[in-house]
Specification:
Elements (H helix, E strand, L loop, with lengths): L1 E6 L1 H19 L3 E7 L2 H13 L5 E7 L30 E9 L3 H13 L4 E9 L11 E5 L7 E5 L1 H4 L3 E6 L4
Parallel strand pairs: 2-3, 2-4, 4-5, 5-6
Antiparallel strand pairs: 1-8, 7-8
C-alpha cells in the first residue's frame, strides 16, 4: 500500500480549531455533552472539549464502546476487545455531540446511536467527525466535518493522534497498481 500524508500536526490543529468554531457558533453559552466512540473518537471529543470549555459552561463528556453493538460480529475472526462505555450524565433530554475520527459506511455511527439510546432519549444527537471518506451504506451524514477525502473502497484513511499514536497526522493509503 502506498501511503500519503493529507494533514500534518499543524493541519490537524487547524482542522480541530475550525470544528470548534463551528460548534461554538451553535452551542456557545449553552449545554452540550460530547460522546466519543472508542478509541479515536474519544480522543477527538477530548480535544474538542479542551477547545470549547471556556465558552460552553455546561460541557459534559462520555465514551461509548460499540463492540457488542456491531452488525458484523459474526464475520469477525476474534471477539472485539471490550473497553466499556462511560456516560456519567443523564442522557434523557441532553444535547449530544457524537464524535468519531472517520465516517465511512455509517455502521459505526448507527451502532453508537443504538447504544446511546439505551441510556435514554437525548434532546438531539449531532455528529462531528474529523474525516468523511464517503461510501455510505446507511443514510447518515455528519453535522460537523473536518475534511472530506474522496477514496475508493479498497483505499482507506487513518487518523493518528499524539495520545494514541505518538503524533498527529491524517494518512491516506492507496492500493498500489500491479
Amino acid at each position: 500500500m502506498e501511503e500519503s500524508k493529507l494533514l500534518d500536526e499543524d493541519g490537524m490543529q487547524k482542522t480541530l480549531e475550525r470544528l470548534a468554531e463551528e460548534l461554538l457558533a451553535k452551542h456557545k453559552g449553552g449545554r452540550l455533552a460530547l460522546v466519543g466512540i472508542h478509541t479515536r473518537g474519544v480522543i477527538l471529543a477530548e480535544r474538542l472539549k479542551t477547545l470549547l470549555q471556556p465558552d460552553i459552561p455546561q460541557l459534559e463528556q462520555g465514551t461509548l464502546d460499540i463492540s457488542l453493538y456491531r452488525d458484523d460480529l459474526n464475520n469477525l475472526a476474534a471477539l472485539p476487545k471490550v473497553q466499556g462505555s462511560d456516560i456519567p450524565f443523564d442522557v434523557e433530554g441532553a444535547p449530544i455531540l457524537l464524535c468519531d475520527d472517520v465516517l465511512y459506511t455509517g455502521r459505526t455511527i448507527r451502532a453508537a446511536m443504538n447504544l446511546l439510546l439505551d441510556y435514554g432519549r437525548p434532546q438531539f444527537i449531532e455528529l462531528a467527525v474529523l474525516v468523511d471518506r464517503g461510501h455510505r451504506e446507511l443514510p447518515i451524514a455528519p453535522t460537523y466535518c473536518g475534511v472530506e477525502v474522496k477514496t475508493e473502497r479498497e483505499e482507506y484513511v487513518r487518523v493518528h493522534f499524539q495520545e494514541q499514536d505518538g503524533g498527529d497526522a491524517l494518512l491516506h493509503f492507496q492500493k498500489e497498481n500491479s
